[in-house]
Amino acid sequence: MGGDSQRKLKPRTRNHRPVNSTEEGAEGPKNPLEAALEIDGQWVVEGGLASRLFQKSALGKPLSGGKLALQPAELMFCHWHRHLPLPSSDWVEQQMTSDGLFMHRCAALEAVRDGGEKVVLFNSLKDDHKAKCTAGTWALRWNRNQHPSRDEPLAQVRWFASQDLVGWRELLEWGEAVQAQNHKAEILVVDGEFDVTIYRLEIETIAGNMALPDLGESTMAGLAQTWAERKEAQNGVFMAMGKENWPLPTVGVAQMNGTWLNSVEAEWLDYLLNQVALSELGHLYSDLLSRGLLCRPGFKYGCRWRLYCEPMDEAHAPWLLSPEDEAPSNWDGACLAVRLAAGVHKKWLCALHGEEWQYLSIERILIGRD
């Protein structure tokens, strides 16, 4: 940007997560801490340090004798933020040898713990909290003013690398099970620079205020006659019935003194008039209409439809929707879709069909400010 009147924006500082150095501007303890010892495959600290890490920060899993077991990602967090020395100069390399995703796990844990939230990894949970975890859950989260020893968890957490494939149906089932526990479902996505973006999943109950009208016998007959005289095109049909006579305000677009139906709308109308079988997409469209919603093309937003609860001249669309088979295949694409939706003040939905249609939303959040 040029010109003196332009506001100068300072680029955000990237976190390189240095090893064997304290945080910039932070002072370590006067008496250096002792490094954790590996005991029976666990990294163990003891004494006052063990008590402080658990009581103040809910880090690690308490053991008998005043000891505390830390998982590798927890130990790394303590190195960065609690001045705990690493067990050896090549400890990071050792962890990478045994776990190729070690750096990603560390970045994910630090992203939510850095602001003071208490995130406890599954293997560090006590048994009654483990029992509340849904299959696939990586950690439970408590607010910064809570503690696992006295409070119920707020959220269940998973993490993914940005290039990981998204299993939409598995994600829906996980989110359903988490919500059934009265927990929030949260996803951490670690990108190629080890930056972490946090998302919340919800199973949405979507509905609008534009219910389909009851069509009388004479209206249906007139609609059927106009359908019989329709003009077909490659991507839809033209109905010679203008807006003033068209009985379905949430179906079709008024054009040239008639009504244009795209291919999905035309399929649905054929189903209404002649009971023809609906495709999967036609079935989804029918479900959305039955919920009182207006569907309009989502071409400009990289999705199938934008969904309105009210007439377009009265309110903006609160949702952007993609069916499961058109949804992004990996987290890079999913994050892009969610960011685009947020940029136009909408929420992105993925529609999935089982016994009924369900709508999974993904929304970016800032932990501690939501």
Counting H and I runs of at least 4 residues, what is the number of helices?
Answer: 10
Topology order in helix (H) and strand (E) letters: EEHEEHHHEHEEHEEHEEEEHHEEEHEE
Q: Which percent bin holds the helix content?
A: 25-40%
Mean pLDDT: 92
What separation lies between the terminal Cα atoms?
Answer: 33 Å
Topology, number of strands? 18
* pLDDT < 50 runs, ≥5 residues: none
Major sheet: arrangement of strands:
5-6-7-8-9-18-17-16-15-14
Note the overall shape. Answer: elongated
Radius of gyration: 27 Å
Structural class: alpha+beta
Report the biggest beta sheet as strand number plus sense, adding barrel if it closes: 10 strands, mixed
What share of the residues does DSSP label as strand, in percent? 15-25%
Task: Give structural notes.
This protein has about 375 residues and is an alpha+beta fold. Among the domains are: about 35-100; about 215-290, no CATH class. Helices cover about 30% and strands about 25% of the residues. The chain has helices at about 45-55, 70-80, 90-100, 100-115, 125-130, 170-180, 215-230, 265-275, 280-290, 330-345; strands at about 35-40, 40-45, 60-65, 65-70, 120, 140, 155-160, 185-190, 195-205, 230-235, 235-240, 255, 260, 295, 305-310, 320-325, 345-355, 355-365. The strands form three sheets. A ten-stranded mixed β-sheet has the order 5-6-7-8-9-18-17-16-15-14, sandwiched between helices. Helix 10 links the parallel strand 16 (about 320-325) and strand 17. The two termini are about 35 Å apart.
